UniProtKB/TrEMBL annotation:
Domain of life: Bacteria
Keyword tags: DNA-binding
UniProt entry tagged with the keyword DNA-binding: yes
InterPro entries, per database record: CheY-like_superfamily, WH-like_DNA-bd_sf, WH_DNA-bd_sf
Protein name per Swiss-Prot or TrEMBL: MarR family transcriptional regulator
GO MF, any single term: DNA binding
């Protein structure tokens, strides 16, 4: 007898089954997304291509919106921007899959709805994304799971825990009453006579980030290890992200999401989770392109840049040293 791994229907506080909107141009992907959402306990509200949805009458979004956008056409990006606005206002949860080629354009469409963005995902990654949505639903009941399912959930939980733990260690302080990983802001003290002059001198003496050539040398040395050892031994996406952004800051260059995912040295979907966590932790900031509102870059926050400068000063990185 085959075990049934389907979830019970997901219901809101009023007892109504939650719904899903499935949008994908690729027929086989759309069919998989629909099937997986049904198995997870959602009721399908809409299931069609992006073009059909854009040209149809304005309909209410599902509680979960699953989108597959493989090609960043103007019409597709316009629809994604609409979904971001509507999803942000309605509180719908979005899971958006795309390709590496379209990532920058797709990422730039979302600023309100905080979607899960998956890059070239397999079916298993989409299922995990649905599971992350289900984890936020109260009073959710699961049918009995097999041992393989239990192990997969355990590994996923451990991975998320490691991300949170490592991010917390990166942050030097936490504001009272604020969320985890946040930097502690110094209090504004009363300034005595001459305080302004002392502050100016202290500002001049503050450590600065090393030159871009130094940082690029450090990054190159880190990457060289992968030619001699298993890359997984040295996977440290948070640090690689910080180094790449520090070098770009020294070069006065903007960093796209696609470039940062490559620099992280892990699969793009994993890198996006790290970037999202680090933005939430105020380690990084999202910077909109003033010439194209649909495009966004990632940069170090000022506090993070200061922390990195102090770190490099403390370990004595003043020339082409290797870390």
């Amino acid at each position: 007898m085959q075990a049934n791994f389907d979830y019970e229907p997901v219901r809101d506080a009023a007892g109504c089954q939650l719904s899903v909107t499935v949008l994908a141009d690729r027929d086989h992907i759309r069919a998989e997304m629909r099937e997986d959402a049904l198995a997870a306990g959602f009721r399908v509200r809409e299931c069609c291509s992006l073009e059909e949805y854009a040209q149809g009458p304005l309909a209410a979004l599902g509680d979960l919106v699953m989108v597959d956008c493989a090609v960043a056409s103007a019409d597709a990006l316009a629809l994604l921007s609409r979904l971001d606005m509507r999803g942000g206002k309605a509180g719908a949860q979005l899971v958006v899959s795309t390709t590496m080629a379209a990532l920058d354009s797709v990422f730039g469409c979302f600023s309100l709805s905080a979607p899960q963005i998956l890059v070239d995902p397999g079916r298993a990654e989409r299922i995990i994304a649905i599971g992350r949505v289900l984890a936020r639903v109260p009073n959710l009941r699961l049918r009995e799971m097999g041992e393989e399912d239990r192990l997969m959930l355990l590994r996923l939980t451990e991975q998320v825990g490691r991300i949170a733990e490592r991010l917390e260690k990166l942050s030097p302080g936490q504001r009272e009453g604020g969320g985890a990983f946040r930097f502690e802001s110094p209090a504004q003290a009363w300034r005595a006579q001459g305080e302004d002059q002392r502050s100016a001198r202290e500002e001049e003496q503050r450590p600065r980030l090393p030159e871009a050539a130094v940082l690029r040398r450090i990054i190159k040395a880190r990457q060289a290890r992968m030619r001699h050892f298993d890359a997984d031994l040295f996977a440290d996406p948070a640090w690689d992200i910080l180094l790449d952004l520090a070098a770009a800051r020294a070069e006065r260059q903007q960093v796209s999401v696609t470039s940062l995912c490559i620099a992280a040295g892990v699969p793009a979907t994993t890198a996006l989770r790290w970037i999202g966590q680090m933005v939430d932790a105020d380690l990084l900031v999202r910077v909109s392109d003033p010439h194209d509102r649909r495009r966004a870059y990632i940069a170090l926050s000022e506090n993070t840049a200061d922390a990195l400068a102090r770190y490099f000063s403390e370990i004595g990185v003043t020339d082409l040293a290797v870390v």
